[in-house]
TrEMBL record:
<feature type="signal peptide">
    <location>
        <begin position="1"/>
        <end position="27"/>
    </location>
</feature>
<dbReference type="Pfam" id="PF15892">
    <property type="entry name" value="BNR_4"/>
</dbReference>
<keyword id="KW-0732">Signal</keyword>
<protein>
    <submittedName>
        <fullName>BNR repeat-containing protein</fullName>
    </submittedName>
</protein>
<dbReference type="InterPro" id="IPR036278">
    <property type="entry name" value="Sialidase_sf"/>
</dbReference>
């Protein structure tokens, strides 16, 4: 096992195992203990010195954590997507020649410019392994989508293809002629174990929307259908609501082919809240699918919804609440999720705990002052566990979750702070490993989940703070983790 020399945070446990390769046994001591969490900065590279900058919904269009695959790695190349100062949609790539050596980013403009100053209108990428294409969706918030796909083979043989605009097709407002909805938001691409590419998206609007899936088989897109319900009655001591939408923390396959989804509900009627100015989000839910998203099961394995059917996953379905919480604590939507090496589901959630009061009246002020992040996970017996990360959120924004090869957990908090907990502690010993001050990051980061899975490097995109609409640098930073 190779341990970096310039470690930012090392536990005493590391000192006893640093000279041993993974799985080795020191004479007379039995099996070597797994290392605890640490990070070592490898590189911090520039994508664009003048990326588009404006604050909307307290976020940036280039760095929203729900921007699944705003950065991705495939076949030894890393790709990133952003809007540059002239509002052009740009895709960049670089060859990852070694973990500690970065190569120059090449960029391509896609022939589309952002239509409005709305931070929801992110760019998301996906790869269909069957035909080697990149798929790109962008610039939508409860309205029409913009779609581009690359030439076949571009992603499966990147070294054999020039990185130019000629490698991409025209901008479309359908998926190759397939109309999804005229109220499209939150595109998230996810690859199935067989190599098909699925698309998760929302139909409708905040407080009255449904999650849906489409699928690309290497030749044709098809709609699988909606799978979450916006109907039903939800009641608190303040009032009731009869419409809502499910906000996903993510949608991801584990190594056994199970599709996992954590979520929160947002009610369409603010009467359920103790006061205006908060968030009508409530409860952290969890469902999973063992048949590629066709049916959905609760934590106990009972089918509670069918994609494209009449019985959708609904607010009152039994066995779906992993962590109950009312709408008076400014619970954030679309936070983060991941699975560990044993395919146990984990999530991070953030809100204002009850010790700071039982009624948030201004979610920006209250989350910034008193917000905290909590780690949730389900054990092998099916029980849910929850631990507070004892680092003030100091932000309205979201945190991302990652695991290293030893199942140590890493929370990448707003401003690029990295906080971690060891598997040995049961993920209870959360400590700050990297304070992020040198980044001058605005807030949320976009995590390269694919690079983490492929080579164990923690790599994320961030944008530096600016003011007004003055463009600012956007960059990708890489950290080594225990291997």
């Amino acid at each position: 096992m190779r341990l970096p020399t310039a470690v930012l945070a090392v536990g005493a446990l590391l000192a006893t195992t640093a000279a041993l390769p993974a799985g080795a046994v020191r004479a007379g001591t039995g099996p070597a203990a797994a290392p605890g969490p640490f990070v070592e900065k490898l590189a911090d590279t520039r994508l664009d010195d003048e990326a588009l900058y404006f604050v909307s919904y307290d976020g940036l269009v280039n760095n929203n954590s729900f921007q699944k695959n705003g950065v991705l790695t495939h076949q030894g190349y890393q790709y990133a997507a952003w809007y540059t100062a002239d509002r052009s949609a740009v895709i960049g790539r670089r060859k990852l020649e070694s973990a500690a050596r970065d190569s120059r980013w090449q960029t391509v403009k896609l022939g589309h410019r952002l239509k409005s100053d709305d931070s929801h209108n992110v760019i998301s990428m996906g790869v269909s392994k069957a035909d080697g294409r990149m798929h790109i969706l962008m610039d939508a918030h409860s309205d029409s989508l913009f779609y581009v796909k690359s030439a076949a083979g571009l992603m499966n043989d990147p070294g054999g293809h020039d990185w130019t605009a000629a490698g991409f097709g025209p901008v479309q407002t359908t998926l190759d002629g397939l109309n999804l909805t005229d109220q499209f938001t939150y595109p998230q691409f996810v690859a199935t174990p067989e190599g098909a590419l699925q698309l998760s998206y929302r139909v409708g609007i905040s407080g009255n929307g449904r999650n849906a899936l489409a699928e690309y088989d290497g030749d044709t897109w098809s709609v699988l259908g909606e799978w979450s319900s916006s109907s039903g009655t939800y009641t608190t001591r303040h009032g009731s609501s009869d419409r809502r939408n499910m906000y996903l923390h993510g949608i991801d396959y584990d190594t056994d082919g199970t599709l996992h989804a954590f979520y929160t509900w947002r009610e369409g009627n603010g009467a359920v809240m103790c006061a205006p100015g908060g968030l009508s989000n409530h409860d952290t839910g969890y469902v999973h699918s063992t048949d590629r998203g066709r049916t959905w099961r609760n934590a106990e394995g009972t089918v509670i919804g069918t994609t494209g059917g009449s019985d959708l996953v609904a607010v009152g379905d039994p066995g779906t609440v992993a962590d109950p919480l009312g709408p008076d604590h400014s619970l954030m939507n679309q936070e983060t999720q991941a699975t560990d090496s044993a395919n146990r589901p984990h999530a991070l959630v953030s809100y204002v705990p009850g010790r700071f009061g039982q009624c948030t009246t201004d979610y920006v002020r209250d989350r910034t002052a008193d917000g905290r992040v909590f780690h949730l996970h389900k054990d092998d017996e099916g029980n849910w566990h929850k631990t507070e990360i004892d680092v003030p959120l100091d932000s309205t924004q979201r945190t991302k979750l990652a695991f290293d090869a030893y199942d140590n957990a890493y929370a990448i908090m707003p401003y690029g702070r990295i906080v971690a907990a060891s598997r040995a502690s049961g993920w209870t010993d959360w400590k700050t490993l990297y304070n992020g001050r040198e980044l001058n990051a605005f807030g949320e980061i976009v995590l390269d989940e694919t690079r983490l899975a492929q080579d164990g490097v923690l790599s994320f995109m961030y944008q530096r703070r600016s003011s007004g609409t003055t463009p600012s640098p956007i960059r990708v930073i890489d950290f080594a983790l225990p291997r």
